[in-house]
């Protein structure tokens, strides 16, 4: 995770961002601290990367890389405003002792558009990550990559529309996907939890599941109820200040799979 010490909404690279509306950095930091504490309370380890001045979106660590079986596939951002984050995250992994850090040729925003399941990786395209990066990630990581087409600019990253519940099942908002990709999801995940528009609109799909617990935006009330019915332990968090940049709990979290 990356503490939002330099967080701001200074430019608009997705429809959630309105630089004229402003964002309260202290509030963002307090909300982020609560998210970090929630992970610690669940027994997870949280490593931190130093925030860099001038990179207001660096708090969204999910975009920094994709780590599978200890191999790190680096990010190459679509927008110039965030370009410097790619090498910064790759450096962190090199310094942390990861032997295989792969510099990407193709544009991709890490776990924003790549979500890892036990047998394959789901990959979004349409707004940020280039479809060529899907092939590159598959070659780099040796796990099959399945392409999904995103069609709604408010759900510009795959992780704004879908999250893994465990290694085999997912929760998603069908409205974010093309018709063909919806059919792919229906056939891969007959038992998926399907979210409605209201929960998607509060970035309720930008959640983190570990098989048992789901850390999720508190405003996603219908989805929270459904997850509870399905037997998940739900941990609601308030990241409303970070949502002004188009991010939620998952965006703030890069999962390190060793
Ligand atoms: N403002 C950031 C951007 O548009 C938000 C990134 C959110 N991250 C994510 N994993 N969806 O790039």
TrEMBL record:
GO biological process: L-arginine deiminase pathway
UniProt entry tagged with the keyword Mitochondrion: no
Gene Ontology molecular-function annotations: arginine deiminase activity; transferase activity
Keywords linked to the UniProt accession: Transferase
Domain of life: Bacteria
SUPFAM superfamilies: Pentein
Protein name per UniProt: Amidinotransferase
């Amino acid at each position: 995770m990356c503490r939002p010490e330099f967080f701001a909404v200074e430019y608009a690279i997705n429809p959630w961002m309105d630089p004229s509306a402003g964002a309260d950095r202290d509030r963002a930091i307090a909300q982020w601290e609560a998210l970090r504490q929630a992970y610690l309370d669940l027994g997870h380890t949280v490593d931190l990367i130093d925030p860099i001045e001038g990179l207001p979106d660096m708090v969204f660590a999910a975009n920094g890389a994709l780590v599978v079986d200890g191999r790190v596939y680096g990010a190459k951002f679509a927008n110039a405003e965030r370009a410097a984050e790619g090498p910064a995250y790759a450096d962190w992994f090199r310094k942390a002792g990861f032997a295989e850090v792969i510099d990407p040729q193709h544009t991709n925003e890490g776990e924003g558009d790549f979500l890892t399941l036990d047998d394959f990786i789901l990959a979004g395209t349409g707004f940020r990550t280039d479809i060529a990066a899907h092939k590159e990630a598959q070659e780099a990581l040796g796990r099959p990559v399945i392409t999904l087409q995103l069609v709604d600019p408010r759900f510009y990253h795959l992780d704004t529309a879908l999250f893994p519940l465990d290694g085999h099942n997912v929760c998603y908002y069908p409205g974010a996907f093309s018709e063909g990709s919806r059919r792919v999801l229906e056939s891969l995940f007959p038992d998926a939890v399907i979210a409605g528009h209201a929960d998607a609109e509060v970035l309720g799909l930008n959640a983190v599941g570990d098989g048992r617990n789901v850390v999720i935006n508190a405003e996603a009330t219908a989805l929270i109820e459904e997850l509870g019915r399905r037997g998940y332990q739900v941990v609601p968090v308030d990241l409303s200040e970070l949502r002004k940049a188009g991010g939620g709990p998952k965006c703030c979290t890069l999962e390190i799979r060793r």
